[in-house]
Q: What sequence folds into this?
């Protein structure tokens, strides 16, 4: 009897541990998703309902509840309590033993325990701990054991906890994690607004105390980060430059850099300004109004939140209007929507830069395993007055465009074109943005950070422009394009078919179905296509296929918030 008692209780404790472990991974996963949605309750709300039956309330939750109630209300008179414990424990192990749904092989953007995240995690953890404590306390004290169960074996009375209530309660805890997260975020919202306002006030005060500091702000649908790094590379040899790292382009990201990294020795501050909703650019300019504004392009990035390309253009144009009086406005001369923004600020000193239009242009663009080569042309009254050969370790016409914008800014700060040409060859590629790598005899084009219709098409054209080697693409296609996503992915598939690549590996069966349709519509042969469920499978197929001299393009990488289940 003692051995049976020990086994039963151990089984119950193991089941409880499995459920608590599952809840812990859900806890960290939903915090990560909330952080990736910028701590915005509205954006998280949309993701929450889009993923409701794949991540939030999963089938295992429903099935486990059905099993418990079936045992409790229909089989209690014929089934012993100890037998029910065995059954429930097996179902717990089978359905909740794996946490793979909430634990990726490699997070694209892992959870970062910032000060704000620590506050949120503490409140959420407190809610869950209290809930768990109540469930466990009631289960072990037996104060809620008034259930219609007929105990048919003497061993069952030796259970130290009521198994039905304990396991049902812990499943409720598991289900409630994202709901408590909403509650915690809502309760913390007033405090976070107060903290944010204090950070903004501190940043504005610091900038007001540095009147000689020049602020360069960059926005656009694509290319903001690359252009930022290029401007920094051209200015850093002559000036003390402070720059937001990576994709820091939110109010708190900008405030963090201003408050913590900017100091009196700096002469120039370069800021990237991102936007997902109307009003975002104005909010950023209220923190740091720019002396120099650079607008890279207008595209369909974040179309789900903006609604239309016209709205995106209107939002990006805010930077031109918020420029300081007499400031410098550098615009993409090849983008009609952007070049027209010069009319919005009559006081600005306006410059156009583009491969085909503007005062600085490019010709003779070529790609190889070392990067991109082209001729940078400076014009006055449509007449070439200066030209320089540029070698970049970056790939793509859009990076040529970004360099021309950066060159236009650098010239306004007194950097000579010859000096720019020398600096260009030393510029390091931006990670995962058409980053050129050499691995085991293969050329890797890493464009995994994100993907948009223009960028994806350009990346394929770059791949096909390499004179030698077989061409391979690994891609899940494009996401976050709203209603046009399926159509754009179908167009992408057609473009891939036209490129006549040697191997196409599509990641995600449902996500890439439009790509496959477009590929077949343009006569692409099926024998060159592989459809897989994960990047791990894709890499294994590529490894088996590739040989020295081949080129592999990684175009886009699905974000951690994406699910196809």
A:
């Amino acid at each position: 009897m003692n051995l049976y008692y020990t086994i039963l209780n151990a089984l119950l404790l193991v089941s409880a541990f499995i459920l608590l472990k599952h809840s812990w991974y859900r806890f960290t996963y939903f915090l990560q998703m909330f952080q990736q949605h910028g701590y915005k309750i509205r954006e998280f709300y949309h993701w929450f309902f889009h993923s409701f039956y794949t991540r939030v309330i999963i089938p295992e939750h429903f099935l486990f509840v059905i099993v418990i109630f079936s045992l409790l209300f229909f089989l209690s008179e014929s089934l012993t309590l100890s037998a029910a414990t065995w059954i429930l424990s097996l179902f717990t192990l089978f359905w909740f033993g794996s946490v793979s749904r909430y634990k990726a092989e490699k997070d694209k953007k892992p959870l970062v325990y910032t000060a704000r995240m620590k506050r949120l995690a503490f409140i959420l953890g407190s809610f869950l701990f209290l809930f768990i404590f109540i469930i466990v306390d009631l289960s072990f004290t037996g104060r809620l054991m008034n259930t219609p169960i007929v105990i048919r074996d003497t061993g069952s009375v030796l259970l130290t906890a009521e198994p039905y209530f304990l396991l049902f309660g812990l499943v409720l805890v598991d289900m409630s994690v994202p709901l408590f997260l909403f509650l915690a975020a809502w309760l913390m919202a007033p405090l976070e607004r107060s903290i944010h306002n204090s950070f903004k006030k501190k940043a504005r005060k610091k900038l007001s105390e540095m009147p000689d500091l020049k602020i360069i702000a960059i926005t656009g649908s694509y290319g903001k980060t690359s252009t930022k790094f290029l401007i920094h590379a051209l200015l850093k040899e002559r000036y003390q430059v402070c720059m937001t790292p990576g994709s820091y382009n939110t109010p708190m990201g900008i405030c963090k850099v201003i408050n913590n990294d900017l100091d009196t020795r700096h002469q120039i501050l370069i800021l990237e300004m991102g936007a997902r909703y109307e009003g975002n650019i104005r909010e950023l300019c209220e923190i740091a109004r720019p002396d120099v504004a650079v607008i890279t392009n207008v595209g369909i990035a974040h179309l789900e939140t903006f609604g239309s390309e016209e709205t995106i253009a209107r939002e990006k144009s805010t930077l031109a209007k918020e420029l300081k009086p007499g400031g410098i406005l550098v615009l993409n001369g090849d983008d009609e929507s952007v070049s027209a923004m010069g009319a919005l600020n009559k006081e600005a000193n306006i410059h156009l830069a583009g491969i085909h239009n503007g005062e600085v242009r490019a010709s003779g663009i070529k790609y190889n395993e070392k990067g991109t080569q082209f001729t940078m042309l400076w014009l006055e009254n449509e007449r070439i007055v200066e030209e320089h050969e540029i070698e970049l370790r970056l790939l793509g016409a859009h990076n040529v465009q970004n360099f021309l914008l950066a060159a236009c800014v650098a010239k306004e700060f007194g950097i000579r074109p010859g000096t720019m040409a020398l600096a260009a060859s030393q510029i390091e590629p931006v990670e995962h943005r058409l980053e050129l790598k050499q691995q085991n005899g293969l050329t890797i084009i890493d464009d995994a950070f994100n993907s948009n219709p223009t960028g994806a098409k350009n990346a394929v054209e770059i791949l096909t422009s390499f004179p030698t080697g077989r061409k391979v693409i690994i891609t899940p296609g494009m996401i976050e394009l709203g209603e046009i996503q399926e159509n754009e992915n179908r167009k992408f598939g057609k473009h891939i078919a036209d490129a006549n690549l040697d191997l196409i590996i599509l990641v995600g069966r449902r996500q890439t179905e439009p790509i496959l349709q477009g590929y077949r519509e343009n006569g692409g042969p099926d024998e060159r296509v592989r459809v897989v469920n994960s990047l791990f499978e894709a890499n294994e197929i590529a490894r088996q296929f590739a040989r020295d001299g081949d080129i592999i393009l990684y175009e886009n990488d699905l974000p951690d918030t994406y699910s196809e289940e």
